[in-house]
Amino acid sequence: MAGCHACDLAQQRTQVVSGEGAENADIIFIGEAPGYNEDRQGRPFVGAAGAFLDELLASIGLTRRDVYIANVIKCRPPGNRDPLPAEIAACKPWLDRQMELINPKVVVTLGRFSLSRFLPNEAISKVHGRVRQMGNMVCFPMYHPAAALHQGSLRSTIEADMRRLSEIVKELESANAPDRQDDGGRQLALF
């Protein structure tokens, strides 16, 4: 990734922000793009939105070491503007490869760009906090943590969605436990 020049963002970046966390994580959180702080540090979600994400993770007993955190695009757009379709397309193979290697059970989309990567033509306001089956994974759309920083009224919604995510993870773990089998001896699974 560090040598990628598939789009013009490579000319302006300080560094590529690939992602971080457990390489065998059951949950991957995917945002839209690195911001100023992320570009400087080379880590995803390290600014104010990242502090809120850390708080959200802690509220359900998780840390960054328990999950994987990435973005749809890996380089900071100038002035933190929205990612362009060509930039999203250029980074698609990188995110695809991360998903393949990590093989998460739950994909948490953070914001509309991440949502549209997995559930095109859906509106975050209509689908946040609702589980969607995607092959052998579950997609769980949430508002981006930065939304709560700009629109304080969304904070309680985001916190409620995170609690719901915790419930979903527990349900998935319970459904995949070895002692949960159907009459034919096969393990029950939600994916």
Descriptive overview:
The protein is an alpha/beta fold. It has a single domain, classed as Uracil-DNA glycosylase-like domain (Uracil-DNA Glycosylase, subunit E). The protein is built from seven helices and six strands; from the N terminus they run ββααβαβααββαα. It has helices at residues 36-41, 48-59, 85-102, 112-118, 124-127, 145-150, 155-175; strands spanning 20-21, 27-31, 68-71, 106-110, 132-134, 137-142. It has a six-stranded mixed beta sheet with strand order 1-3-2-4-6-5, with helices on both faces. A hairpin with a 2-residue loop joins β5 (132-134) and β6. It is globular. It starts with 19 loop residues before the first strand and ends in a 16-residue tail after the last helix. Residues 179-191 have low confidence and may be disordered.
